[in-house]
Structures are given as structure tokens and as C-alpha cells.
Write the C-alpha cells for this entry.
Amino acid sequence: MPDTLVRTHARSLTLTQAVCAKASARMRGVGDGAAGQAAVDYAPEGERPALACALACLPQVGDTDGLAGALAQAEAEATALQGKMADEREERSRWHADNVRRRHNYVPFMFNTLRLLAKRGQLGGLVKHAKSLAAAKAQAAQQAQAQGK
């Protein structure tokens, strides 16, 4: 189920796209043809008043500068809303991956990996290598701390 924020952005995007279509029709000189009314008629019941208000606030056919500004503003808003929706979906995807990782039990996998490495005789060398890396990292941290004082 999509997140409420994504649904809110999607509704706003639908309204913005309808305003873009209406402003662009008025700029072409088409006026208030059936496109604007169809957008209101096919909008979800709760969105109709907001859409009707947004369309009513558009400049009239002769005002090309006002229409161009309204169109540019609506297109910018649509682009911003699409970006927000993409960000929200990406964040939800990351959350899903994190939740899957949290629910998975990695202990049997790690146990079998360590057992297999020990059986092949590679575990001792890896442990020594890890200890030397940890010691080098600790020494570098001590040196950085000594130079910082």
C-alpha cells in the first residue's frame, strides 16, 4: 500500500497537471473547452473543489503573459512533486531492504562460513590478518589523537 505522503503528492501532481493542461489550452486560444471541465468531472470526489478553484484562478485567454507564468509555475511544481514522489518511493525501498535485513537470521550463515574456513585451514590466516589491520588502525588513531593535542 503506498504511503500517505506519496498519495498526497500524487493528488497534488494530478491537480497541477490539470492546471498545466488548462493553461496551455488557454495559451493556444482554445479557451475553456471541454478539457477543463473533463478534468474536474473525472477528478476524485474530494479533489473536485480544489481543482475547480485552481482552474478558476487561471488568467483568461487574452493574458498570454499571465498564462505563461501560471504554466511555468505549474510545470515547476509538477517537476518538484515528481521528485518528491521519487524520493519518497526510494526511501520506502531502502526501509524495506533494512527491514528484511533486520528480520533475517545471519547466525547460521556466519557459523557455517567460519566452520568451512576452519576446515580449509584459512581461518587462522584471516584472523591474523584482521588482528594486524585492527592494530594498525588503532595505532593510526593514537597518532592522530597525539597530533591533535
